[in-house]
Amino acid sequence: MTIDPVDLTARLIRCNSVTPLEGGALQLLQVELETAGFCCVRVDRGNVCNLFARWGAKGHDRTFGFNGHTDVVPLGDEAAWTMPPFGAKEKGGFLYGRGATDMKSGVAAFVAAAVDFVRVSPPDGAVILTITGDEEGDAVDGTTALLDHMEGDGEKMSVCLVGEPTCPDQMGEMIKIGRRGSMSAWFTVTGEQGHAAYPHRANNPLPAMVRLMDRLASHQLDEGTDHFDASTLAVVTIDTGNTATNVIPAQSRAAVNIRFNDSHSGASLSDWLQAEADAVAEEFAVEIDLRIKISGESFLTPPGPLSDLVAKAVKSETGLDPILSTTGGTSDARFVKDHCPVVEFGLVGKTMHQVDERVEIVHIQQLKSVYLRILQEYFG
Known about the structure:
This protein is α+β, with helices and mostly antiparallel strands. The protein contains 9 helices and 19 strands. The protein has helices at 5-13, 25-35, 104-120, 143-153, 205-218, 266-284, 305-318, 333-336, 361-379; strands spanning 39-42, 50-55, 63-69, 90-91, 94-96, 126-132, 159-162, 174-176, 178-179, 181-190, 194-195, 232-239, 247-248, 251-260, 287-296, 299-300, 323-325, 342-344, 358-360. The strands form 6 sheets. The protein has a 6-stranded mixed beta sheet, with helices on both faces. A 4-stranded antiparallel beta sheet has the order 12-14-10-15, covered by helices on one side. Strands 4-5-19 form a 3-stranded antiparallel beta sheet. Helix 7 (305-318) crosses helix 9.
């Protein structure tokens, strides 16, 4: 049984799986995988649906893993779409639909490659797929639930490939061997409300907020490391909600987002943010409340056997020597890295999350070929 990855991608796109909806996508994959001899288990937790699938013996010391997701982001302005967002229509060599790039095509390509591989040349080892419906959401009950299930059931991946789109412009140009950490912080500065004509009878929180945001935004966190660009801090909102020009407000709120490299940890940056807030609070005699959410720590899979294996397969199928990169946002690789070595390789991601999201049809076939070659070389 050979699976056409383009057809499978189209069938997955037709499943309305906007997080946290499953939309039939995991059911579809389970049927395909069980038909090919994979043992499948639904690992649903909370309001999230997840699928674990294994071909071969449990606990084998040569187990190749794949991680992906079938959930997608919301459509945005549906009226702006020129193609049906869940229609999987083909036009001009592209397949259109939400999730076409991120990342139903990647899941379809690996499923098709894995089924072909175990059918034609059954390996001395095991192949595992962990497919979540919660990557685009809070990611609390998705890949983490799958990894918890594996730990509790004696399942183990020796290495793992995440199928996120990794290529900026050309198919095959980039592999991700790590990701920056990500965290957000929310500040509330509280002063004392009063009349704008009598500022001495109030305590305006805005000068304190402006000073704090300037201190944070103008601070150079680092100059980058061997495998990471310099860390960044972006002020993403300042909101006072005051519509009256003759009133000094009582409060002002702001938020920042930090993407950080391996020079830092979420804890060390949290301490720095608190120290900056405390210093400004003392200077302006205001109260500053700080709330922090750490979405993920930075991590690196050092260049070596796994990245070499993937790079060799990519070059064989695309003709390009892929760059080993840690750029971009976060992915579920941040959870997998605590389980086993992990790298990421997938499609060109230019249209992900956009209106009229689309994927080059030839790239889906090419990605299947890359994944198939990776499996062949890994099991050798």
